[in-house]
Each structure stands twice: as C-alpha cells, then as structure tokens.
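Example with several molecule types.
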Amino acid sequence: MEVRSIGPAGTRQVGALRSWQPPMPLLAAPLLLFMLAFYAVPVLSMLMRSVNDPAWTLSHYASLTGDTVFLKVLSNTLYTSLTVTLGALVLGYPVALSLVRAPRCAPVILILILLPFWTSVLVRSYAWMVLMGRHGIINEALLAVDMIDQPLRILNTPLATRIAMIHILLPYMVLPIANALRQIDPSLARASSGLGATPGATFRQITLPLSMPGVAAGVLLVFVLALGFYITPAMLGGPREITLSMLIAQQVDQLNWAYAATLSAVLVGTTLAIIAAMYRLPGVGNALRMSAR
Amino acid sequence: MAAGLTVMNAAGRGAKVTLNDLEKSYDRAAAVAGVSLDVDSGEFLTLLGPSGSGKTTTLMMIAGFETPTRGDIAIDGKSVVAMPPHHRNIGMVFQNYALFPHLSVADNIGFPLKQRGVGKAERAKLVGEALELVHLPGYGDRYPRQLSGGQQQRVAFARAIVFKPRLLLMDEPLGALDKQLRENLQLEMRRLHADLGITFIYVTHDQEEALVMSDRIAVMNEGLVAQVGRPEDLYDRPGSRFVAAFLGESNFLPATVRGIEHDVVVAECDGAIIRALSASPPATGEKVTLTTRPERIRFADGAWSSTAPQNRLSVTVTEALFAGERCRYSLQASDGTAMVLKEPSSAAIRRRAVGERAEIAWSVADTILV
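Resulting structure tokens for the full complex:
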C-alpha cells in the first residue's frame, strides 16, 4: 500500500513544477463572453417579452391554444419539415453511398454537393424563381417540346418550397451519412458476402444498420434547420403556405413584439422537444452519441 | 459435445482445391505471378511468406474477393473463378475478425445460417453447438466489443464453420494476439481441424506458427511459391537460400565444388572439405552456397563425438550470448564467413569466451546445397 501511494504524490509534485498553463475553460472565455453579450442576452430578452409585455402574464400563451391561424401555421411548418427531411433522406442516401463507394467520382460528387452550399440561400432561392416561374426555364422547356399547353403553376406552391428546401438542405443529410458509411470497416461487407449474403442482403443487414448514426444525425440536422427556414418559403411558397418563421417576421413587421416573442418561444421549444424526443427513440440516441464520438 | 459440426468419420468432408497458374496484377505489377498448388481434401495447408509475397492476395482470390488476372481456381474439380463470393460456400476468418459490431455474438454466428434460410429454432441449436465447440457457451447475448481479442477470434472461427463449409480460409487470424494466447489457439486450431475434417488454408508470416500447425507449407516469395512440403522437409531440406533463411535460422557457407562421392557433394570451404546433400548434382568447380542450421552445429574440441559423417571447421568466437534455455555464439571462419551456433545451456558445459578459437562439427545430413 505504501509503495503504491508514492505514485500519485510523485506525479503531483512533477505537475507543480511544470510551467503554468491556463486551464481550458479560460481559453474559451472570450468566445463565451461574446456569445453571452450578443447572443444569449438578446435572445433571452426577446423571449422575455412573451411573458412580461406589457406586464407579467401568461395570456399570450393562453391565447395561442385557441388561435386557429397559429395552429394551422404550426402544423404546416411541421409537415413541411417532415416532407423535406424525408425527401432529403431518400435523395441523399444514394448520393452518400456513391460518394463512399466510388472514390474516383467522389471529388466531383463532393463539389456538386458543396458548390451550391457555398452560394447564398437568397441567390439560390432567386435562381429557383427563375427556373420555376410562369415564364421560367422549366415551363418554357415543357412548352417547347409540347408536353404541356399552358404554363404549369410551380412557383408559389408548397411543391416549390419543398424542392428548393430539399436542394438547400441536402448537404446536411449527405455529409453525416457519408461520414458514417466511410467509418464502416470494408472487411465487414466482404465477410458478409463470404458468409453467403447477396449484395442486397449485405446492404440491408450490415451497411444500412451501421450507417444509422449518420442517418439519425442527418435527419435531426435537416429537420431542425427546416423548422426555422424563412427565406425560401417566404420567396417561393404559396400565399397561404405560411411557416412559423414567416409568421414571426410578419408580427415583428407589425410591431407586435409580444406575439412574435411568444411564437419564437414556441419554435425554440418545439425544436428542443424534437431533439429530446429523437434522442429517446430506441437506438437513435445511441446512434447519435456514437456519431458524436 | 457438438456432434452436429464434428464427425467421427471425417474423411471426404474437406474440399479439394486446385490453383492453376494463378496470377493477379495491379497496374502491371504482379502481386501473384503464377501460383500452381494442389490442396488435398482435409489438409491443413499454410501459405507462408513475408509481407508482399502474394499470400493474402492468393487467399482473397480463392475466397472470391479478388478476380485473377489469369489462371484458374477449382474447388472439387469445378472452376469457381466466375462465381461471386456469396455462392462459393467457403468459410473465412479475417485478420481483424470482421465481426458485425451491431449484432450479438449469437446473431454474428447465425448470420451465415440466416442467409441460407435456416429457421430460427435450428439456427439457435447450431449456434449453441458452435459456441460450445469454441469453448464460449453462454456468450450468445454479448456484443463483439464486450469480448477480448481471443474471444473475438473464437467467435469469428465459429461463424466461419457453423454453416459446415468444406473449405476454411484464414488470413493471419492470430496476428493481433499476444504470444501466450497465440500458442494456445494454435493448438486449439489444430484440434478443431482434426475434429471438423475440413480443408484449411491458412495465411501467416510467422514461420513458427506455420511449422507447428500445418500438414504442408507453401513458402511464397515475390508472388511465387518457392517451395511446398511438410514442415520437417522444408526445414531439413530447404530448396533455396530464401526458404533456408525465411524458415528458421540458417548459416550460409560459400564453397567450391570439388567432386561428388556416392551422391554426396564434396566442396571446399575456407580450406576445409565440407560434404553436403544436394537435390541436383552441381558441376565440379562450380561456386555454391552450403547451408546448415545453428542448432545442429556443436563445438567438437571437447568430449563430444559422433559416429555419423561429420563436417569440421576451425573458427573464432566473436560473440557469446546466454539466452536462458540455450547459448548463442557468433563465430567467424578464417576467410571471414560468419556463422551462428546454438547450444542447449547446461551448467555442465563450459561456456566459450569471445576471441577463443574452437573447432566445430556438424553432420553431413544437416548440410544442404542451396
């Protein structure tokens, strides 16, 4: 026992002799102060308006429950986010797979994914307007080959919003999935095939389950980002397809601060609740923790 | 015991494998440059060679993960070159085990059965038998990450044989384990080979492992088979300098052939006459290399004597090492040829000092012309 106790004591002495190093939290202090002053304080003071404008009250929240406009907007927002997430997953998984499986094409695929990513959302939304407008490229092309007689109404429909949002959010789905796929030991697929599994069975039983951490991360990212999307639905969406963020902006424009703050609190709360719920789904929490490692 | 997997009458359970002029090139560089090999039914054959000798590539071609550039692979007389791996019905143990991390031990072992449409109850029974065979009963519910390296290796083995393949391929399956465990598993693997009666093709770079486990060894070098044979034949009669050096330790003596007497080569080395065995008789006057094993040489100036025909040489001790069970001496002949002598250690034997002159001797049967 005595011999053993020498170890830690000796280590401590050596540690004390070393030159002083700032503890890790101190290094992050400048950023923390910045975030506190310019992010946490303004956001909190905005959210506070939902309960203390003009005086302490919960009436803003109480009134929401009977507010049919709000409930419609909330359900529309959730539904849009859900379809966009599913669309991005269905389109993104094969892209992630080819990114990993075809290393020769990978740089080209990666650039194709990231190029729009580096362009402003505003510019991309304008580009979609040019494409999908009544006299846009899509309609002109379809008219030119006589596939339609009259221009289709694409712009200012839910479809337009969803197409553009999927396009903008696709990298957030593809990159985590590709990362998860890349981490799968290639000898596992070989082992599976050697043990008698067809390529399809190997994908279903080995590759797909092992890529779930990436799928969970991608779904969470895309869904949460889609919940708060503003520019694209505002520019491309239909007049009756209002999302929560659009409603908030509208209320701020009308200087209806308390109502805007209440809606913001609901958006933040919904987002956090969805993240928490996803962590609790069997398997997903583990998968997310694995992807964080 | 696991009667379903092991059989009393093991004959005929193993596949016969024939490699015919097998070649694999990547961008014109040949990894395997024409390997022909016959593996008998139920045989334990080891592909032994340094890294880059083509042994793993050869194994991967048999498994179907690599396509040969040229040549043919036949299993029980049927060419399998065009057959995808999942139709070949070959068991394989990978170097890193390749256990599926998201499946339990039981599901890992049951995986090949599931692919073959074996029902749940039958699967559970066979998995239980396989676990018993590798001494891991009751481990079915664990996950691979909860097992030690040796246990993972056993699970990988169980998974590779549970569907009763006639051929098992193993790619350095003991490489990642420590020495003690490796030696235990070597013996266990030999026992399982005897019980299962199926053909094993084993890849390793560890010559001791190859010697202990194999029925036959194919020593590979630079994409070719340098020599095939039983372990003792390869060790006693290496066919080339490479085999002599790679399989165990060897002394190499440069010599000039003086003649041949009764199938024994008579050569001159450092002024002494050395007799050696040779597979093919060399020409008189030819410069040759003779080889002999360090543990088969003795100091000949003591009370030591032998009736067998001897070679003798005068040397100087240049280094003396005590290594516990034996003493290892570095020696130098007067022409500068370096040799090594290993002697079992004993308190009764006088240890030689550096700089001491000595006479050494070894039998003609242990001298091979390479």
